[in-house]
Every structure is written in structure tokens, then in C-alpha cells.
Amino acid sequence: MSERLQIRLLAMLLGAAGIAAVDQWVKLLVPTPDWAYHHRSEGWFALSAVLFICMVALAVLPSAAAALGAALFAGGLLGNMVSAGTDDFYIPNPLLVGHTAGIAFNVADVGIVAGNLTLVLACSILAIRHRSQIEAWRGSMRTRLRGR
What DSSP designation does 78 have? Predict the structure, then answer.
């Protein structure tokens, strides 16, 4: 593994840990009304763990923006997974839009959304930059599929 790749992976994991830490800090300090706890299942938890591993895989793409998006997304996943794992699968959402029955969310949710948007943009740019390689790969896959 190249040194550049190791640095990108380490930066991604440290960024994810930072987002998760800020999320936990906000959840600890800002009170959450009873209606703003969202229950999650064991299946959600397992899928989140799989997505976290996918974010680590995306961090190896040759793009700082992809590593940033993966860090944001993974940090959000990690923050919500820690909350769910420590509170019987209930996740507090202390950030509110409307006080009685509005929108409730947390820092982890913001990380997931921002990470998703960043990843879409970064992967789109990578696809455009490397379109000739993608076309060559598609051509070879077509040839292989037709030959079978």
C-alpha cells in the first residue's frame, strides 16, 4: 500500500472519528425532547456497518474530495451507531426545526447528507476525468459477455 493511500485512509478514519465525536458531544449537551428519539433495528445497525466498510473502500479512490465525502458519511454512520448501540437502538435528535412536532436531526445526520453529496460530486468528477478508462473497461466487459 502506497504512503499516499495510507495517509488518505488515516485522514478519512480520523475525520470520521472527529465527526462522530462532535455528534456525541452535541447529543450529550443539547436536550432532546421525547418525540425526537428515532428507533432503529438490528438490521439498520448491520447495514450501517456494511456502509461504513464501503466508505473505507471509497476513501482509496484517487480523490481528496472522495476521501472527505467518505469521512463525513462514515462519521455520521459511526455517530448514529454509537448512539443506537448505547441507548437500546434509540437515537437522539437534539437539533430541531419547530419545537413541538417539526424536523429533528443530529450532527451525524448532517454528516451523512453532506458526505453523500460530496461523494456524488467527487465520483462524478472522477468518472468524467477517467471516462476513457471506463469506456475501455465497458468494451472489454461487453466482449467477455458476448463470448459466453
Answer: H
**Domain that residue 18 falls in:** 3-147
With helix as H, strand as E and coil as C, how does 90-136 read? EEECCEEECCCCCEEECHHHHHHHHHHHHHHHHHHHHHHHCHHHHHH
| pLDDT tens digits, 81-133 | 999 999 999 999 998 887 666 788 999 999 999 999 999 999 999 999 988 88
Cell representation of residue 127? 468518472
3-state secondary structure of 47: helix
Cβ distance 77 to 14 under 8 Å?
Answer: no
Domain count, the chain: 1
- Encode 86-97: b = buried (16+ Cβ within 10 Å), e = exposed: eeebebbbbbbe
In the block, residue with C-alpha cell 465520483: 123
Q: Which of 32, 61, 55 is nearest to 112 (CA)?
A: 55
Cα–Cα distance, 87 to 126 (Å, whole number): 39
Rg of the chain over Cα atoms, rounded to whole angstroms, equals 19
